[in-house]
Each structure stands twice: as C-alpha cells, then as structure tokens.
Specification:
heterodimer, A: alpha+beta, Beta-Lactamase, 5 domains, five-stranded antiparallel sheet, 22 strands, rod-shaped, B: alpha/beta, Rossmann fold, five-stranded parallel sheet, 5 helices
Chain lengths: 644, 147
C-alpha cells in the first residue's frame, strides 16, 4: 500500500507537467492532490487539498461530475464524460480512474470544441429554417402570411424578445409597423410610431444596425426609448436595397448581447426573401391590374386544362368570383357558357400544336372572338365581345347588297332612258322630217303649178319657206349625230391622227377645187382613241377652219401638236371674240350669222362631247379677224392600252 | 296578164301626194297602188286575189307604218314564197344605222332616204323609177314582169 495522501515527489513533478487538469480524491472524497492546471481551470488554489471535494466545489453537487465519480468508485471502473462546469463556466472532458483508495481525475477544457460544434448545429438549423422559409415563400403563401412566419422564425432562432417589420415610405422618410411580435405590455411607446431614427442609417446605407448595449451606444439618442422599454440590445437589417428600400426588420433583446455575424446574415437572408416576395407580389399585383384593366376577358389554364387565373371580366362573365374558379377544370365553364365545345377543342389544339389560334363564337345572341396562346405552363385565352364589329360588318354587307341593288336599278333605269331616247331620236328623224318635206314639196308645187299667180315677192317668200325647212332638216340631222356621239360605246384603237387629218383635207380640197388653202399637217401624230369619233372631231375642226378662212387673203390651216402635248387645229380665218369662248362648245351656240358662215351650231358641241368622253379636254384661243386655234388632248400610248 | 304596177306603202298622205307628183314629173306612168299601213300591205300581198293584179314590179316601202312596221312587212314578204323575189325599195326619212342594217339583213334591194328638198326628192324618185322599172331585169316568173 502506498501513502495516498502524499505522492512521491517524482510523480508530483510529472503531474505538474501534464497539460490536463488533475486532482485526486481519497475514498472519503477528500482532495489529496490538485495540479496547477486544475487550479487554473477551476479558479482554485492548492489550499483546497485536504478539503472535501463537494465543499471545495459546491456547484458540482448533484451534477454529472458527482454521479459519474460515485459510479467509478462503486464499480471500480474508469469513466469518461463531457459536462459543463458551473464552477469554471466552461465545458470539461473528464476521465476518472478509480483505485482501492480513491479516484484520479483528469480533465481538460473542451469549451471551444463544444461551442464550435453547437455553432455548426445552430447554423445548420438556421440554414434549414431559411430554406423552409424560402420554400413557403414560393409555395403561394400570401405576403402577410409570409411576414408572420418571418417574425416568428427570427424570434425563435435568435431567441430575441421582440421582432418587428416596418414599411418604409421613401417619400416622407417615415416608418410604419407592418407586423410585430413580442412587445406585449413592454412597449411604453406608441407601437405604430416606434423609435426609428437609428433605422434611417440602415435604410440609407444598407448596412445592418447592430447594438450590443443601448445604454452605452453613442450613435442615436432614440435608443434611450428602447432602454425605457426594457430592451438593451438590438439588430436591424434593410428589406430591399438602398436604391429601392422597402422597409426594415428589427429585433430587440432584453439583455445586452453581441449579435454574431451569422445572426446578422440570418436576418438578412429573411429580409431578402421578404423583399423578393414583396416585389413578386408587386409585379403580380401589377399584372393582375393590367389583366383586370384590359377590355378582354382573360383566362389562363394549366396543361390539364384547369383554371390558373381569370381576370375580373372573365369571372363576371362566368358569374363567379375570380378567386373561386382557380383550380376548376375549364370545361366546367365552357360547357355552361356553351360554345358547342369549340373552346375546349381549340384549347387542346393550341396545347398540342403549340400555336396561337383565333376563332369566333356566338353565345346568347352575342359574338365573341377568342385568341388562344400557348405558353410553357398551359394556355391563355383572351375573349372579346365583337358583337358591334360583327353587326357593323353585317350592316356593311347589307349596305353593299343594297348598293348593288340600287346600282342595278339605276342601270336598268338608265337603259330604259336610253331606249326611250333612242325611240325618241327615231321618231324625231322620221316624224319631224316628214312635215318639212311636205312644206318644201308643196311650196315647190305651188311655184310650179301656180307660178304665174305669184309675183316675185311671193316667190321670194316661198323660197324662204323652203330654205327654212331645209335648215330645220339639217339641224335635226346634227342633233341626231350629237345624240349618237354621246351614246355609242368607245372603241379604243391606235389612231394615226396625221393620216386622218390629211384625208379630211384632201376631201375638202376635192369638194371645193376652186379654193387655194395652204395646209400643214405635222407628220407622226398618234393617239389611242375611237377612230370614228376622232374622225368626227377632225372633220368638224378642219371643216370649221376651212369654212372660216374663206375670206382670208392667204388662207392657212395648221394641224399639229404643241410642247404640252396638246393637238391643235389653227387657222388664220375669221377668228372669234374670246369674250364668248364659253359659248363656243354649247349646242346651237353660234358666233357668226348663218349668212356669214353656214352651220348648225352643233359641230363644236359634238367635238367637245367626244373629247370629254375620252376623259380629255378642249379649249380655244382666238381673236376677231386673227384666226382661231382649237387645242385638244387625246389619250396616248402611255395613258391607255387599245382594246385590241 | 295584169298591168304592171308600183306598190307604195306609205301612211303619210303628204308623202303619198309628193311621191305621186314626183312620178308624174318624171313621166313614170305606171299604175301606183297605195296602201296606208303595214297590215293593209300584208293583206293585199298575201291574199290569193289582188283585185286581178299580179305582184308589183317594185314595192316602195316606208318604215314607220301604223300597225305592222315596214321592216316587219319586209320580213313577211321575204318569208312568203310568191313574194320573196319581188324587189323592195325602202323609202324612208330615217337613216338610222339600225334601220339600214336591219333592212339589208332582211333582204331589201335598195335603201333610199327621202330628202327634205323636194327637188332632190324628185331626183331620187326619178332614179329609183328609172332603175327598177326600166334598167333592172326582174326575176323570171315574178308576178309583175312584162307589160
């Protein structure tokens, strides 16, 4: 047996040198030895040697230390454990070896190891909490529900007393409490008007506000209010960004506390999720506003054709609340607001072929246009009431039909009028001439049979009767020609105007071989026009020139085309007074007496009508005694294609 | 054998008088049978007995006639076996294209427009008479023929 109370000096030296704490107890739990390291760890001195262990370290009573040492001595088996020492305020890893006369205890401070282990665990729990929180934000939680979760979570994880989320108004730089937890009766200030001056800095810079002890923090006076409210430490982080601050999450703790980096990171993570959810909520709200404001009814369905969203207009059409229909199969509504299955068919088609579709349906006497667009998650449909447009269209169609009917009616009337005019002309040519022939014939008969009964004067009168009858016959013929020019259809051909003019000149020359008229026809004049009518035009114009140059000294007629492209027939004959040029082209308008120059007064009216029928124009220039020039246009190659 | 004669179908008594005067002035002494409308003309031509006359040497036909128009009369003349070869001269005020075309289409032998000037009218009648009654050889076996 060795003396257990006094260790051999060499052993004592060894025990002093080891880095573990060490002490030894005898069978009666009296301390027989304690090394320097143990004294340091346990804040003791070696004068505890000889004392009962529990007297020296009373805080160990009833704890694992006492229980394990007792077990070791009773079972004579070594024990090993880790326990928090209230004496030393740290964690010890303990190994105790029993012997027949006592217990040898080795221990070391493992606080840092335990702490870091606990930190790891705490961080893992926070990470998990953040992940869960993020998931619930995505899972369609409302924004308010999300805020409620956020304050609960922060209070639980950080173990703080109060958590509040404040909205920030960028306009007037004020905060209002959106949601808070934990004040209870502690708040001695208006919870809707909290002390916030210290939060402005956070909003401005985006840096978190961390205060371990409001009593000694020099930064903001408003913190004094917190002290009065029983809160000694605080942490606050920004929701949003300094450019777009939305609000602040603030947490308060009733005791002084140094919040760790991971505490700050945790709250910042929560704040970020809240901010994202807020902006998602905002953009969602904007989209809903847009969809509610459009004139179209809107519905979106997923790939299973269940409603994921309807705007207010569509809900009203279905006579339901927008919120009530989400999740229901679209067929429920398309059947009810029956379009004969067209909607469902087209939804499926759009999904299958991934292309946009538009179709029209009639429901309850109104017309609807549906435009269907497939997207990644399903199909969206815009439905518009197009009844008005449709009615307009139908009205237009009806109007067109009516117009066509009226045109046909007018055409028929015109044809009838034309027929009547024809039969009128026919009557004129027949019936008006017969009496004239009788007047002339019987005047002649009178002269022949009873000539000796008349003196010269009477014979002169009868001559006048006959001349008048002849003139009337000419007028009738001219009128009929004018009517014919107006009615006959235009037949467009290439016309060699120069050749036609030359032919007419030749005829005139032949009819009056005694006259000498100098005539110049510009070669190569071309037009695309009705050849017969162009002939009539030239006949009249050249005929006039021929007629009106009868008294000219050196009569000259020129036919050509000027730089502006106008054809012209120029003479140096009697000419006319420009004052009367507007009368030139009217029927029966004459600027000369029949005695001076014969004529019906129909010629230029006929010419003008022919030119106008070709869509062209005619004008005249002249002066009394200085000749006249008639200018007219005709369609050319460039304007028109001939009929054949 | 009946005497050869001219058939004048004309409703206007003035024109009848003037035409006959023109015949006289031109010394055309042939008988002239005057009928005043198209219906009479048809009745006369298509009856078996024309008062003992054969078919006329030439028919002077006005177009604008009461009841049956001149063109219709012409059409019937050409459709009827016994008359289809009889020379027909349209003598009318009209020079409407349609009338000319239709007249020739229906087989008229000549188309003469009545001039208003009586002297010209006399000349026209002279030429028609000279041509159809003297110069022209009528188709063989036609009712008129010979003297």
């Amino acid at each position: 047996m060795t003396d257990s109370s006094v260790l051999r000096p060499d052993l004592s030296l060894v025990l002093e040198r080891i880095t573990d704490g060490f002490f030894a107890l005898d069978a009666d739990w009296r301390i027989t030895y304690i090394n320097g390291e143990a004294c340091k760890l346990l804040h003791a001195s070696d004068d505890c040697v000889g004392k009962a262990w529990l007297d020296a370290f009373p805080k160990a009573r009833g704890r694992l230390f006492e229980r394990e040492y007792a077990r070791a001595m009773r079972d004579q088996q070594a024990v090993q454990f880790i326990e928090y020492s209230k004496t030393a305020n740290c964690w010890f890893e303990v190994k105790a070896y029993p012997s027949a006369d006592g217990l040898s205890v080795f221990f070391r401070d493992v606080t840092s190891r335990i702490e870091s282990q606990r930190e790891v665990e705490r961080n893992a729990r926070r990470q998990q909490a953040l992940i869960d929180f993020g998931r619930s934000a995505l899972a369609g939680l409302t924004y308010e529900e999300l805020l409620e979760d956020a304050v609960d979570l922060i209070r639980e994880i950080l173990g703080v007393n109060v958590v509040e989320i404040l909205d920030f108004d960028r306009g007037d730089l004020t905060f209002t409490v959106r949601r808070s937890i934990g004040w209870g009766s502690l708040a001695i200030f208006d919870p809707l008007n909290p002390p916030v001056k210290h939060l402005l800095q956070t909003v401005k810079t985006g840096d978190p506000f961390v205060c371990a002890d409001v009593r000694i923090d020099p930064r903001v006076r408003s913190l004094a209010v917190l002290e009065n409210a029983g809160m000694l430490s605080s942490i606050a982080v920004l929701i949003g960004t300094p450019q777009m601050p939305m609000g602040v999450i603030a947490a308060y703790y009733a005791q002084t506390r140094t919040f760790s980096i991971s505490d700050v990171r945790f709250v910042e993570s929560i704040a970020q999720t809240v901010a994202e959810s807020a902006s998602a909520t905002e953009s969602n709200r904007r989209m809903v506003q847009v969809l509610d404001s459009i004139k179209d009814a809107f519905v979106a369905v997923d790939r299973d054709l269940c409603v994921t969203y309807v705007n207010a207009r569509m809900a009203r059409f279905w006579r339901r609340q927008a919120g009530d229909v989400v999740g229901l199969p679209i067929s429920h509504f398309t059947d009810q607001f029956g379009d004969g299955g067209a909607a469902l068919r087209n939804f499926k088609l759009a999904l299958r072929e991934e292309r946009a579709l538009t179709y029209e349906t009639n429901f309850n006497g109104r017309w609807y246009e549906s435009r269907i667009y497939p997207f990644a998650g399903g199909v969206a449909a815009y439905v518009r009431d197009i009844t008005r447009r449709k009615t307009e269209q139908e009205r237009m169609v009806a109007l067109n039909v009516e117009l066509e009917r009226r045109v046909a009616e007018r055409t028929a009337q015109l044809e009838l009028a034309n027929k009547e005019l024809e039969s009128f002309s026919y009557s004129v040519s027949h019936d008006l001439r017969a009496p004239l022939r009788a007047i002339d014939g019987f005047s002649q008969a009178l002269l022949e049979d009873y000539g000796e009964a008349f003196d010269d004067r009477a014979k002169g009168y009868l001559d006048r009767v006959r001349r008048a009858a002849q003139r009337m016959a000419d007028l009738i013929d001219a009128l009929l020609k004018l009517a014919k020019v107006a009615r006959a259809p235009l037949v467009l051909r290439h016309v060699d105007v120069s050749a036609v003019a030359a032919g007419i000149v030749e005829e005139l020359q032949a009819s009056e071989p005694g006259r000498t008229v100098e005539v110049a026809v510009e070669p190569g004049l071309q037009a695309v026009a009705d050849p017969n009518l162009v002939g009539a035009v030239l006949q009249n114009l050249i005929g006039n020139a021929w007629k009106f140059t009868r008294r000219a000294e050196a009569p000259r007629i020129e036919i050509g085309r000027n730089a502006a492209g106008e054809f012209f027939v120029r003479d140096n004959g009697a000419g006319f007074d420009m004052t009367y040029q507007n009368k030139l082209f009217g029927a029966f308008q004459r600027l000369h007496s029949t005695d001076e120059y014969e004529g019906t007064g129909i010629g230029l009216a006929t010419v003008a009508r022919i030119i106008h029928r070709h869509g062209c124009s005619i004008r005249a220039e002249g002066a009394v005694g200085a000749g006249a020039t008639l200018y007219f246009t005709l369609p050319s190659n460039e304007d028109r294609k001939p009929d054949q | 054998m009946s005497k050869p004669y001219i058939l004048l179908v004309e409703d206007n008594p003035d024109d009848v008088e003037l035409t006959q005067r023109a015949f006289a002035k031109n010394h055309i002494a042939n008988d002239v049978v005057v009928l005043n409308d198209g219906a009479q003309a048809c009745e006369f031509l298509f009856q078996s007995d024309r008062g003992g006359r054969g078919y006329p040497q030439v028919i002077l036909l006005d177009l604008k006639l009461p009841k049956v128009s001149g063109l219709e009369v012409l059409e019937r003349i050409r459709a009827f076996d016994h008359t289809k070869l009889v020379p027909v001269v349209i003598l009318t005020s009209s020079k409407q294209e349609e009338d000319l075309l239709e007249g020739y289409r229906l087989g008229v032998n000549s188309y003469v427009r009545k001039p208003v000037d009586f002297n010209e009218f006399v000349e026209a009648v002279r030429q028609v008479g000279l041509y159809w009654l003297v110069l022209n050889e009528p188709p063989p076996g036609s009712g008129g023929g010979g003297m």
